[in-house]
Amino acid sequence: MTTTEELLSFVQQMPEGFAYAPIYAAGQNLESGKPTKGKTPKEDSHHRVMTPADVALAITKRPDVFQAVGVFTGPRSKGLVILDVDRNLSALLGKWGETLTAAPVIKSTKANGAKYLFLVPEDMWGDVKGFGLSESGAGYEVLWGRQGVLFGAYPGSTTYKTPAGAYGFEGDLHQIPVVPGWLLSEMRAAKASPVTSGFVKNRKALQLEGRTNDEIAEIVQECLNVIPQQGIGSHDHWIKIGMAIHSALPTDLGLTLWSAWSCEDPEYSDQWGDSNPCEDRWNSFKPGGGINFGTLIWLADQQDPARRRFNDVQRKILEDAEAACKITRFRADVLDYESVIKRVTELQELENPAEMAHKMNALALEAGYRDAGALERLIIAHIQFQQQDDDMTIGSLIDKDIKLEYLIPDLLPMPGVVMIHGAGGDGKSMTAWTIAKHVARGLPFSIRGNDVPVQKGGVLILNGDQSEVQVKQQMMELELGHDDPIRVVMGWDLNWYLRFVKLINKHKPALVIIDSITGCSRGSAFDENKKEFAGPIYWLANNNGRLFPACSILLIHHSNKAGGFRGTTALRDAVDEVWSLRKPSDAEVERLGPSTRLISIDKSRAGRGGSKLLLKMLDDLTFELRDCIEMAVESSSPASVVDRVLQRLITASKAGEGRTRADLNADPLCGGSVGGIRKALQRLEARGLIFSTKEMNPDRPSSTVNKYFALLSPDIYRSSVSHIGKASVELETDVGQGVEVSHMFSEPEEEHGEVNESGVDELEKSKGKKQKDMGQQKACPTSLPSAGAVSAQWDNFSLTPHREPAQNLRTDAEILQLKQSAGDFWNT
């Protein structure tokens, strides 16, 4: 397989003036989501002339996606023509070897095939045409207006049973000979052939008896002669051609012209076995609309701007028709790239969304785009390119200042995307609003039977499913009020990418709720059963923390009749977790109580699949959401070791004690292997359910040991303070130094000391005194952070702990200062 370095070296040596294209590797997805077979050019190369520098940039940014380079033939590339031999190469060399050996040649693993490059003189461009394998009958085809691969990855061929490999290039692209006479004659003959030449698959549209020499039909045919087919993923291009022909020639003759052009696309050859796929679409076209005869002329002009395809009579007919019908010809050079980017950026600053939408659509038309959505995708791609982080080494990624945090430990990752689905009226929205209440107020959340702190932060609700009255009523039922940091945007559309980025940058919410996927996709042109429907969800997941500040995104969706989520399975692939909400069965109600809803986690990238949550209406008509330990299932899998370790740490932490890994290894209630307990601690710490401190090792005073604590809610911490005796907290070591705490709070200047909630008086009594308890030091988790750090914990909590490298432990003076500030905080 050709390496990226070899490919880029070849690209750098290519001459200017040809229309090149990066080529998708086999199996990669196009922008439309469809997989390629390995010879498909990058979409925008059809509409603009890409230079060698453009191709090199695309390959450098996405070397896994683009692994070859191709070139468009015809007038776009100075009259370049490619003779593509698929079989009988030896016979062709025996007949025309002298002319073929003089031309640059491209070879692959195909034993008896090759591609030869020639140039057609400019004055003959209007007299020639390419043709396919079926038309030549000699094992070769001629590419004129179509694209051919020059160098790079070769996907292989099932037809000729050739393996995948690489295209090799021999010769000089700067020294391409003029097309030999025998080949030029064949191209002229193809141009002079009737429209039905080679078109034998459309059984119903072949009857051309009585056809008149219609002037419009001749112009259409000349345009189709230069407009290339675009292969897989070009459905919109195909439809646009058909609609343009239909607008001027809505007859069987127009259908025949479109069908003859369509069937020449080899990547769709399998769809012409028994019928004409153009017929049904042709009959659905209606007069009017934005696609007309001028569109066809414009598309052809992109390939042949000098209009050499027309003879003098046809050119005069077109000029008269344009003057009479006032056909608008769109020009390819309407606006340059920098001007479009500048004006789009300026429009994003408009406050009135209706005014912005109007001006964006007007700019799209002026710039040659179909709608404002294309401009939004353009500016998003521009912003991503400016970040210069699409292509990086593994070391660069590791060194990036990014980390996975948890908005709610072991429940809502940040950045992360979660989808909850259920039947109508089952409580999906109420579940989301309840989570919003926990986040907006920083209310503890029950995880595995233990109340853990929740990061307090703003909430942004993007609603496209319910009316204002319904949303207000549900908020009031949860007793949410004016002071809660929650913002609501009505009538949201998932395709508003730029507006989403602006909202997140403006409000910086910790949680975003989108209600619902279907309700916010009303402007989408895709069927919800198609993969493209999940495009906006993939965009949210891929850009969370990149184009906008990291947050937790909760998507509400509807269930189908079978109880699964509605629409394409690509929705499931796009999110980090899938929650299924349902009403409990009668047997489950007996255990869980009335007025409850059960949430099952069907998919989880964090390994929480199979867990359950419980939504319950309380006696005061408010709602409670917690994990459902009542529905827990005993398991002998390694995940049960994680649960047992967590429960032992919760029990110890409520008593103001921590546990080392050695303690847990020796604890018979933990069970599991030494390696299993080590991995359990790593997973629990990554999920934000536990944290660790560094303490002096009693067995080796020159070293430290990690002690682990469960993360408890403030109320449990406060109760544990009164429960712990003064002598139960070891503040100093044998060498008179304090205990170092691992970094988990937002104030780095105060996160390495240990304090005691008992206050300064207790420190004065114990200063300089060495205390021992069963030969191990004890550290109360409530006494670890400073007052400022603990305050930051509940006001703006960062729940993902990580270990700092070993540093000098705290001095007595530092411990005294930390204890004073912490004592003041807890006493208040």
Q: How would you describe what is shown here?
A:
The strands form 5 sheets. This protein has a 9-stranded mixed sheet, covered by helices on one side. Strands 1-2-7-8-4-5-3-6 form an 8-stranded antiparallel sheet. It has 5 domains: 4-192, no CATH class; 215-325, no CATH class; 337-399, no CATH class; 405-631, P-loop containing nucleotide triphosphate hydrolases (Rossmann fold); 639-827, no CATH class. It has 28 helices and 25 strands. Helix 19 links the parallel strand 16 (511-515) and strand 17 (552-558). The longest helix has 16 residues, at 372-387. Helix content is 36%, strand content 16%. The two termini are 69 Å apart. The chain is elongated, with a radius of gyration of 35 Å. Helix 7 packs antiparallel against helix 8 and helix 22 (639-654) packs across helix 24 (674-686). It is an alpha+beta fold. The model is unreliable at 195-213, 326-333, 632-639, 717-811 and 814-828 (pLDDT under 50).
